[in-house]
Amino acid sequence: MSSPIGIGFIGVGVISDTYLENLASFPDVDVKILGDLDVERAKSQAAKHGVPAAGTAQDVLDHPDVQVVVNLTIPAVHAEVSASAIAAGKHVWTEKPLGLDRESTASLLQDAAARGLRVGCAPDTVLGPGFQTAKREILKGTIGTPLFAQTSMQWQGPEVFHPNPGFLFAKGAGPLLDIGPYYITALVSLFGTVNTVAAMGLRAQLERRIQVGDRAGETFPVEVPSTLSLLTTFEAGQQANSLVSFDSPLARQGIVEVHGTEGSIFLPDPNMFEGTISYVRPFESFGEAPPVQERIDIPQEGTVTGRGLGLLDLVRAIAEDRPHVASGELGYHVLDVMLSAEESAASEEFVTVESSVSEVPTVPVDFDPFAATL
What we know:
single chain; alpha/beta; Rossmann fold; Dihydrodipicolinate Reductase, domain 2; 2 domains; nine-stranded mixed beta sheet; six-stranded parallel beta sheet; 17 strands; 29% helix
């Protein structure tokens, strides 16, 4: 691979703006073409962001200078589009989830490996300096041996702001597959392979009502649980309790706490690339009432960017012949955990997670997205 690496997009919806803005600031990549079912939208985005070409998905796959395809299509076709890119001889970076079923996503990774191609999968927030600073603190023993974690994302649901929210409550979405990847990816990046999952789910309403936009007042069906509580156990011995909900009047999100033998650490929102990190020490002793525990702040280390950071790490990893952080293997394991949680909620039984994941690499403090390294 030579610098800069040629990038092509398939899918140029709303999320493409932040990708294109960030990638334009990374010298190691160069966006060559945008493709979409709506070719006019692709042309508009290309003009907006100074991309030299636009067309269909096939135009992206046929482009001779595209070495990596960025897949920003809807989740239902993630695996299909990524497989097409692999068949065309391109590496792939895909938005989460990697796919919606085990069979097609496993086949995708097998085909990529057979062709010597890489697959990367969002979220790449775990590469951000917020999460990475906290991870380095855990690895160096700031809280002793990690024992268990708690995460929470809860609020009343996207129909209060989204003019067409039905797809977020359809099969393949819901709070678990839409928001869960951020939290589960963070936990797997810290603790490694998940062994078993137990989950309980509920649908607070069978139909919900759109609150904003031209369709305000219309109802739509709820096909999947809108609240899920998960218990995960890890191969390394840790446990985690996680809540994802679109039913809570109390809005609370970004809660990730890891509790160890010598302290508890508070991580930033895993949906963000930066944030506040702090920890507390256990009480030594106290009288009738415990004192207020002092939160000790940890300075964030590293360069703050945004979406596309995982893609940049992927292309550098290819050149350096090393594993990339947000890998297809990681994306598949996270998907397997989420599908296992759905199965557990339906069966009311513990489910064994069949897949595993290698140790997720830590990002060096001196990783500079704005440097030309290739």
